[in-house]
Design goal:
The protein is of the alpha/beta class and 427 residues long. Helix content is 30%, strand content 25%. The strands form 3 sheets. An 11-stranded mixed β-sheet has the order 4-3-5-6-7-8-9-13-12-11-10. The chain has a 4-stranded mixed β-sheet with strand order 16-15-14-17, with no helix packed on it. The radius of gyration is 22 Å and the shape is globular. One of its GO terms (molecular function) is ligase activity. InterPro entries: ANL_N_sf (IPR042099), CapK_Type1_Caps_Biosynth (IPR053158). This is Phenylacetate--CoA ligase family protein.
Length: 427
């Protein structure tokens, strides 16, 4: 009853304030569910042309550019940070804005301003993709992230939105026991959203303490920020009866892509972003089926236009059912490991350690093309080091030189996430 009331109040308030979220929701729905129609194609081009022209007319960094997307330079966090004022629209300096910040994988602060229309578009993006994952406004949402690193919502807002914020650093055994009891009390209206590593930790806790645990209270699980691995996917399905959905998003822009139910590819959010896959070494377009840099143009941030923004991630586009979709997202470029032949390994080979129950954590560091370091946090004496090295060599190459270091802990980043693969050659 209370959940239905929250839903009703949300949409009533939106109606009273001009139905901006609803109209954006309907626009996103129309564009993504009729992606190849002439109307959708025309409207997406209009959005792209409009943000390019706006940037040329009002943003110092983009003045004198030609109004074609390929004429704009590819930018990244460093370029944006070093020219921060030059990326701000002169026509929005006195307008209300929302400031979002992220530390990224380096711990260096990165800030973006968003105008009010952009924040409304982001909210509507969330509403659409949440609904596709089984979540509706008013459902109880357990949100796992490093909350100390983000702007905290006030308690009454969390109550009104039915959000339970859970800091990933709080996931101790006793905390997880209480959390699981609370989830068990649910009535089929609970949704889980958060880092893959948080769900992995919960599942491994259940593996060791209560492998017969089952819950029917969860209706939706969405993973963010990290690649969804097979262990976590299978384990959450076993314990909660729900196959998790992976979402590709960032703090500075919003939802870029999301998996449909029971699919391994990602639907690109073409309603709000123009997405390109560019060559690893230059800014040439990659062909479908080739791995490259994910570069996006935000169609709705007029305060801080972000055009051809290199996200730092790698991906691959292919065509499925006459739609361009992302079939691979490998995560941060800096974490892309190569084998001894210099070929990029596009999946997390550290998952090998899941069969070694004595290991609590593992981090693979590449120091040069043939030298690697394995940092291992072992719960007890680890007697299968040679076997583990042999397993890694199957992927890295028989001529890989692997040094093992035993540590007491592999620390989380400032973002609350843990890098399991580090390529020092790219730093």
């Amino acid at each position: 009853m209370l959940n239905n009331l929250r839903n009703f109040l949300f949409w009533t308030i939106d109606t009273l304030t001009g139905s901006k979220k609803k109209s954006n929701f309907q626009d996103i729905q129309s564009l993504l569910e009729n992606v190849n129609s002439k109307t959708s194609t025309k409207r997406k081009k209009e959005y792209l042309d409009a943000i390019l022209q706006h940037a040329i007319n009002t943003v110092p960094y983009y003045k004198n550019m030609k109004p074609q997307i390929t004429e704009f330079p590819v930018i990244n966090k460093n370029i944006f940070r070093e020219n921060f004022k030059a990326f701000q629209s002169e026509s929005f300096q006195n307008e209300k804005k929302r400031t979002v910040s992220t530390s990224g994988s380096t711990g260096t602060p990165f800030t973006v301003h968003q105008d009010i229309s952009k924040t409304i578009r982001n909210t509507s993006d969330n509403l659409y993709f949440w609904e596709k994952a089984g979540y509706n406004i008013g459902d109880k949402l357990f949100f796992f992230r490093l909350w100390n690193a983000f702007e905290k919502k006030k308690s009454f807002i969390n109550f009104a939105q039915n959000i339970v914020p859970i800091d990933v650093f709080d996931l101790t055994p006793s905390f997880m026991e209480n959390l699981l009891k609370n989830i068990q009390k649910g009535k089929g209206n609970i949704c889980l959203l958060g880092y893959v590593s948080a769900f992995e930790k919960i599942c491994k806790h259940l593996d060791s303490t209560n492998p017969n645990f089952r819950s029917n209270a969860v209706k939706s699980i969405i993973t963010i920020s990290e690649k969804l691995n097979e262990y976590t996917k299978e384990s959450t399905s076993k314990y909660f009866g729900i196959t998790p959905i992976s979402r590709y998003s960032n703090i500075e822009n919003g939802i870029i892509a999301q998996q449909p139910n029971n699919k391994n590819y990602f639907i690109i959010n073409e309603a709000s972003y123009y997405l390109e896959i560019l060559n690893l070494e230059n800014d040439e377009q990659q062909q479908n089926g080739a791995l490259g840099r994910i570069v996006i143009t935000d169609l709705f941030n007029q305060y801080n236009p972000m055009i051809r923004y290199d996200t730092g991630d790698l991906g691959m586009i292919e065509e499925i059912d006459n739609k361009k979709v992302l079939t691979q997202i490998t995560g941060r470029k800096i974490d892309a490991i190569t084998n001894t032949d210099g070929e990029i390994i596009t999946f997390n080979i550290v998952l090998i350690v899941n069969k070694y129950l004595q290991l609590a954590q593992c981090q693979l560091i590449q120091t040069n093309q043939k030298h690697y370091t394995l940092k291992l946090n072992a719960l007890q004496n680890f007697e299968k080091e040679n076997e583990l090295i042999a397993d890694f060599k199957k992927y890295l190459g028989d001529d890989a030189i692997i040094k093992v270091e035993y540590v007491s802990e592999i620390p989380l980043l400032a973002s609350g996430k843990r890098r399991v693969m580090v390529n020092q050659m790219m730093q």
